[in-house]
Amino acid sequence: MKYVVVLGDGMADYPVESLGNKTPLQAAVTPAIDYMAKHGILGLAKTVPAGMPPGSDTANLAVMGYNPAVYYSGRSPFEAASMGIPMKSTDITFRCNLVTLSEDEPYEEKTMLDHSADEITSEEARALILAISEKLGSEVFRFYPGFGYRHVLVWDKGPYDWRLIPPHDILEKKITDYMPAGSHSSVLERMMKESCSILIEHPVNKSRIARGLRPANSIWIWGEGKKPALSSFYDKYGLRGTVISAVDLIKGIGKCAGLESVEVPGATGNIHTNFKGKAEAALNALKRGQDFVYIHIEAPDECGHRHEVDNKVRSIELIDRQIIKPIMDELNRLGEDYRMLVVPDHPTPLVLRTHTSEPVPYLIFQSSDPKNHPMQTYDEASALKASSKNTSLYIEEGFRLMDRFLDTEKLQEVAS
């Protein structure tokens, strides 16, 4: 048996007026997913525990089978692990975004225009973070360039009493009420303010402005955490697996769980990612003996943050056409028995442009054990309906979804 997880980050949503009051999942044309829905098991899972932030960190931990209440120590340590950053138990790590703030006001009165600085490239961002490191870095504060707009700051023996807000939670809002809070907040605030004068004069930003792109005119520090300690995925489930993702967070979770991480050329973390390459990487991993692949696609989430309605629908269709269908076709051709899970980590509603913590729809399909639900579709409303009819299809503790997906007896119990 081969096990395939296809996670569309932020794929779940609310009904959208311009889509005829359908959600993007309902509006998307997805023949491969439709087939699995008619022959699979549909339900809801609460991937974000009550009282925890609805982030891709907590939610992907849960989907991967790890209780966030036990294993979550912050977002940035997983990104640091993926980047190979050495971490001591006394280090505090932070996510360091390159963002676009409005320009004319005093810093505290600026508005968060774009959490990704117009999806700045990794090459451009690297030059900017190295400039920040040269001016603001030290033996105590170490900056590391990452992927796209996502970077890491490590504070040696730093404090851990923070209230830091993700920039994608405050799009189009004044940052006044969202500045760093904590006993040493003035340190991070100073760095963020000083970054403006460093970045705005940098040749990379002058070039971006000349090309009609938003400049990365500030860093935004958030996502604090300590060195993580996950138990081995193999020890938990007896399966050897591979994680396929463009973003360091997911690669880091996989690495900390002892899973292999595969780099896919052209994987960008947005709508322009190499969808086909991710499918090929998953199939190659399975063909060389891996039991389990976890394919993470960031594109729906980024479209949600950017309020790109048509692109969010299109991203779901590309997942269906260029990832799910090729994997199904090839495994069927090989005569390989497989089980596939399609699920978001959390909703990223277009109307809100940030994450929420509602339960997400999941779909489980097994090639050798097709069900018969001819009217069933994969979307939020259908999953709610299925879970209302059969309450065992609702998973209150989302980290148990992986147990159900991998355990044949548990799966048969809810399907009967």
Give a brief description.
The protein is of the alpha/beta class and 416 residues long.
Detailed description of the structure:
It is a single chain. This protein has 416 residues and is an alpha/beta fold. The protein has 2 domains: 2-73 and 229-415, Alkaline Phosphatase, subunit A, CATH 3.40.720; 82-225, no CATH class. Helix content is 37%, strand content 19%. The chain contains 16 helices and 15 strands. The strands form 3 sheets. Strands 11-10-12-1-13-14-2-15 form an 8-stranded mixed beta sheet, with helices on both faces. Helix 10 (248-256) links the parallel strand 10 and strand 11 (260-262). Helix 5 (76-82) packs across helix 10. The two termini are 21 Å apart.
Keywords:
19% strand, Alkaline Phosphatase, subunit A, alpha/beta
Show the helix and strand layout.
Elements: E1 2-8, H1 24-27, H2 31-38, E2 41-45, H3 56-63, H4 68-71, H5 76-82, E3 92-101, E4 112-114, H6 122-136, E5 141-147, E6 150-155, E7 162-163, E8 181-182, H7 185-200, H8 203-210, E9 218-225, H9 233-237, E10 241-244, H10 248-256, E11 260-262, H11 275-287, E12 292-297, H12 299-305, H13 309-334, E13 338-343, E14 360-366, H14 380-389, E15 394-395, H15 401-406, H16 408-415
Parallel strand pairs: 1-12, 1-13, 2-15, 10-11, 10-12
Antiparallel strand pairs: 2-14, 3-4, 3-6, 3-9, 5-6, 7-8, 13-14
